[in-house]
Design brief:
- The chain is α/β, with parallel strands linked by helices.
- It has a single domain, classed as Rossmann fold (3-Layer(aba) Sandwich).
- It has helices at 11-14, 33-44, 56-62, 64-69, 86-99, 126-141, 179-201, 226-239, 252-255, 257-264, 268-271, 304-318, and strands at residues 24-28, 48-53, 75-80, 103-108, 146-155, 207-212, 275-277, 280-281, 284-285, 297-298.
- It has an eight-stranded mixed beta sheet, with helices on both faces.
- It starts with 10 loop residues before the first helix and ends in a 5-residue tail after the last helix.
């Protein structure tokens, strides 16, 4: 990590001089936004990318630029994956296992944000079920394909600061549903999953981390109306220290930069079991509410005992155990 990168760094700047030829990468959510840019940047540096998406027709069209810009040795193959259906998740995992081709990187990028209350095909609250449980089953089922020196990068969010996970009521059966509270729970779960996965696998040379890409205009915010977005940004700006720069959106290449930085540039020991933002490891913060929402990670998202409890609860919910 000799180069210093930050909030405005792009994927191409972060990967400048990096040769990923021979590296095999799984990226979920390659039909739009950050997933497409992450796949493009990695393939442009020689990586063999397997892109997972729910809608393969949409992903095929969205990833034309990935194939067009792939460097020598770089490539993109698509696989079908609906994270809101464990049947689909397991079929995808079975197909990858049958191919017997190991991965150097898994970037768990796909997700939904602040959607109306709903359920996945398996009856889980939509955001927790899609953002966390779908990836939990997929990654654990194919963990044997991660060889020594490989990494798992979970996309979390500063939105984890809205809420800790609720292991007593993960599906909002006994508490009122709030879109951003549900989102916060799922994003906290993404961090905790990385913490426990890292603990379980680092002895064999496999590390895991979670990243916050920043605020970006992508399809992820499809459920947020302009008034809701304006109110959210106003609340964030109002909570900042006097004189702080107002909130501004990142470009998609800037948003995907922390993912590729954590995947192929950062020191594995430095980021293992941690939460990263703006191409660096974030500091633990304790300020209440939205204050400082643009920076830092809550302590509850990194708590190792909390991470183990979530793992156990997740196994109970999906009906599988992963050693």
């Amino acid at each position: 990590m000799n180069n210093v990168f930050g909030a405005t760094s792009t994927t191409d700047e972060v990967l400048q001089g990096i040769n990923l030829t021979g590296k095999r990468v799984l990226v979920t959510g390659v039909s739009a936004g950050l997933g497409v840019e992450t796949a493009r940047a990695l393939a442009a540096h020689g990586a063999q990318v397997v892109g997972a998406a729910r809608d393969l027709s949409k992903a095929q069209a969205a990833t034309e630029q990935v194939r067009a810009q792939a460097a020598s040795g770089g490539s993109l193959d698509l696989v079908q994956l609906d994270l809101a259906s464990l049947d689909s998740v397991r079929r995808c995992a079975d197909g990858l296992l049958a191919a017997k081709r190991p991965f150097d990187l898994i970037i768990a990028n796909a997700g939904v944000m602040a959607c109306p209350k709903g359920k996945t095909a398996d009856g889980f609250e939509t955001q927790f079920g899609t953002n966390h449980l779908g990836h939990f089953v997929l990654v654990n089922r194919i963990a044997s394909l991660l060889k020594a020196g490989s990494r798992l990068v979970n996309l979390s969010s500063a939105g984890h600061r809205y809420a800790d996970v609720n292991l007593e009521d993960p599906n909002f059966e006994h508490t009122p549903y709030e879109e951003f509270i549900a989102y916060g729970r799922s994003k906290t779960a993404n961090v905790l999953f990385a913490v426990e996965f890292d603990r379980r696998h680092k002895a064999r040379g496999v590390r895991a981390t979670a990243v916050h890409p920043g605020g970006i205009r992508t399809e992820l915010s499809r459920h947020l109306t302009p008034p809701v977005l304006e109110k959210l940004i106003a609340e964030i700006n109002a909570s900042q220290p006097k004189g702080a720069a107002p909130f501004s959106y990142k470009s998609i290449p800037q948003g995907a930069a922390t993912s590729v930085w954590a995947a192929g540039v950062a020191d594995a020991e430095a980021i293992g079991g941690r939460y990263c933002e703006d191409c660096h490891v974030a500091e633990v913060v304790s300020t209440p509410g939205l204050s400082g929402l643009r920076g830092g990670v809550r302590a509850y998202a990194l708590d190792p005992q909390h991470a183990q409890a979530l793992w156990q609860k997740s196994e109970e919910m999906v009906g599988e155990r992963f050693n």
